[in-house]
């Protein structure tokens, strides 16, 4: 992008397009120390209190800076490189990491190993990049004492507390309020589809594993979605258009949220899958539409439950798995509780935690 000047007006030129930059837009970005707090990068003035008729009395380009005198008496130097970043107006940190589609043929993904000062290390940066590529990551050697999972979560960002508590213990127990707390196998599902917003990321930490079963299973909802889109576009269309009701009832709470099973961004790219077929209720649509919907849902379920897409592996004590609850489905194989203990601890964090940490580490290591 090139900045050009003409008659006290500032233009950007990206090679194919030349446009004037609004003088007020530039005035909002003055960054002298009386206008911008250097530490927080927050404004020290309220732009909504400025006169809308701001214009430029004088402007020059000096090296990498625009030197501007505005008609309200403010003089400022504005870094041209910063304007270029704003022009592209994209979160390049997360969007620059391409999602890698995977299925049961996925070769071993790099594991990470916890050590001192892990959270502020370049390795943590690499871990987060790997997480965004594959939708999950496994970290070995995580201490298992004192609910360390909470410390782990809070060292990336903040724990997302739910009605299951700050963290939850996954082991079979009597009178469970969720099938997770039994020794039954769990088909691939996403967690908390009835919550608004749905927790973004689940952490699962293996504390004890003395049973031969109880393997962890993962399915990439992104891969399944993309395959469904190319193989059965009608199914993809209806599943990404019809909102269904997810509901969870416990003694002291009733949670309910409506969403498509495949949720798309405004630009029709993949955003999120929700799948928990014991909890979803489709509205009373026209019979023909429901005919298609039920066929589509059955096909989706078949894909999610197919060997083609599922990976299975055993978490061993001190392993911590971090998985994207918007992208992946997770489950487990059944186990025999009499064989011994199987004990996992889980908690949730949201994307602001991982994104905030990733941007911080990129800044810190100049990556
Ligand atoms: Fe779950």
Task: Report on the architecture of this protein.
The protein is α+β, with helices and mostly antiparallel strands and 367 residues long. The chain folds into 2 domains: 2-89, NE0471 N-terminal domain-like, CATH 3.30.2020.30; 112-365, Clavaminate synthase-like (Double-stranded beta-helix, 4-Layer Sandwich), CATH 3.60.130.10. Helix content is 25%, strand content 29%. The chain is built from 9 helices and 22 strands. It has helices spanning 23-27, 80-88, 92-95, 122-134, 148-156, 221-231, 233-239, 287-304, 351-365, and strands spanning 2-6, 9-13, 18-20, 56-62, 65-70, 75-79, 112-113, 136-140, 159-160, 168-170, 186-189, 201-209, 216-220, 244-250, 253-259, 262-264, 270-273, 280-281, 310-313, 320-324, 328-332, 342-349. The strands form 6 sheets. Strands 7, 8, 9, 10, 12, 20 and 22 form a 7-stranded mixed sheet that branches. Strand 2 (9-13) and strand 3 form a beta hairpin. Helix 6 packs across helix 7 (233-239) and helix 7 packs across helix 8 (287-304). The longest helix is centred in the last third of the chain and has 18 residues, at 287-304. The model has no long low-confidence stretch (mean pLDDT 94). The site of fe (ii) ion has 4 residues, from loops.
